[in-house]
Amino acid sequence: MGLVLCVIAFSVALALSRRNLGKGLGWVLLVGCLSGWLRARVFDGFAHFIFDAALAGWYIQGFRLHLHPKGPGDQTLDGWALVLGGIPTLVFLASPFLGGQPLLVQLVGLRSSVLFVPTLVLATRFRSEDMRELSTWAGVSAVVATGFAVGEMVFGIEAFFPRNAASVGVYRAFAIAGSTFRIPSSFASAHLYGGTLVALIPVLWTRLENGWGSRAGTGFYLLCAASGPFLCSSRLPVLVLGAIVLTLALLGRRSPLATVSALGAALVIALTASSDDRFRRYESFGDEGVVTGRVQGSFNRDLLDVIADAPLGRGLASAAGTSIPYFLINDALPQEGMESELSRLALELGVLGLLAWVALAFRVLLHGAIAAKSTGATSDALMLVVVAATAATALIGVGAMSAIPGTLLLFLQIGWLSKRSVEATEKGSVESRHVLIGTHK
To answer: What is the DSSP string of 115-133?
Structure first.
């Protein structure tokens, strides 16, 4: 059954991507949202790769039909994609000299390191019509995920996730210690659920800005997306949502009605969440001991120590954060536990890989700020908030580069902001030249 679903996911992605990148990516997004549930329900090895199959279909059709550059920002991340995909590949080829994990396990690590990198290339080819199609799929994904979450609250998680090796993570996460599980919705974990739905908000906001679809429908999509961080009982998504709400409040002059509506919806969600203890796990941020313990736990292996011990890295999948499938877990060597994405990158890819990702992060934040300021689009500002929050939380968490489907949305927003920045810069240069020519005349 898993193989059949892989074929379906791949074929639909090919068909939808033929005319529009946004439609194809929207399908991949929906499959990614359902992938955790599908892995547990269709318990075979092939089910682990349903999302990969959909993503492969989008990549193949996207690179075949949409790769030719048409605008000034279309190639801005092509070189970066080669570097970020090339370094893990070199590490994999050099694995006999580095030791580390068995070959098949390192292949899983290679998948985690390069799976989303081509998204950077196709994201810079996105057009307004692509974003419009994607925003519709994003809304559907938010509704579907919320439907699963509500169902799990009513009928229990066991009705959706059978207990097996593919759902171990679901039954290890408690909202209230020892009594109440966190709500994973249709994802592999509650954290993936909350993080993905928060990342959907900037994409959904493009619908309000451009008048795509009805405001009531978009408002419902946003309500579903904003509820995710509370329903999943995960703290970091609540912080990101708070940063988004603060940004909307500061930019209220651009769209007062939409912003007031969003703030009102956030208030309703917060009041609803306050009625149940399992939805208020974010309140532990007020506990100094919890925060201190989390930060100390995230630096259980000092970054400089990692670099000094293994400047070339120890090979792919050597650090916790690279999820190893249940059917390979017995072959894998113990991973080094850490809750810092930077330390994980240093341990697996060495100094070179770490510097490449850090350099991209600084570049994206700079270009994102330029895009948000130049375009005046609230959605661009919200995308910058999501990217900046992800970069900041990389210090105290892992998985930012391999979350399904959250990383897909992250890389899409990186590509979109980079493209918008270059376009704004080019437009400013053209206008300056016109002014100079007019002055000389």
So the answer is: TTHHHHHHHTT--HHHHHH
- Per residue in 337-378, pLDDT tens? 666 788 888 888 889 999 999 999 999 999 999 998 888 899
Instruction: Give the integer Cα–Cα distance in Å for 125 and 133.
Output: 14
Closest C-alpha among 52, 46, 65, 53 to residue 115: 52
Q: Is 251 helix (H, G, I), strand (E, B) or coil?
A: coil
Angle at 1 between CA 408 and CA 39, to 5 degrees: 40
Q: What is the Cα Rg of the chain in Å?
A: 22
Q: Which of 54, 276, 292 is nearest to 180 (CA)?
A: 276
CA-CA distance, 354 to 165, in Å (whole number)? Answer: 32
Query: Ramachandran region of residue 185, left (φ > 0), alpha (ψ -120 to 50) or beta?
Result: left
Gap between the Cα atoms of 230 and 242, Å rounded: 11
Q: What is the pTM of this model?
A: 0.87
Cα–Cα distances (Å) from 332 to 78, 285, 296, 409, in that order, read: 34, 35, 27, 30
pLDDT digits (tens, 9 = 90+) for 32-65: 999 999 999 998 878 889 999 999 999 999 998 8
Tokens representing 310?
């293994």
- Cβ proximity of 416 and 203 under 8 Å: no
CA–CA dist 205, 380 (Å, integer): 9
82-94 burial, b at 16+ Cβ within 10 Å, e below that, comes to eebbebbeebbee
* Integer Cα distance of 419 and 74 in angstroms: 6
- Alpha carbons within 13 A on the beta-carbon side of 344: 26
Structure tokens at 242: 């708070």
Separation CA 89–CA 72 (nearest Å) = 29
Which residues, listed in sequence order, are joined to residue 174 by a DSSP beta bridge?
A: 181
Cis peptide before 202 (omega within 30 of 0): no
Q: For residue 291, count other CB atoms closer than 10 A to its CB.
A: 14
Say whether pLDDT at 297 is over 50. no
Closest-CA residue to 109 (of 98, 124, 121): 98
Rounded Cα distance between 422 and 75, Å, is 10
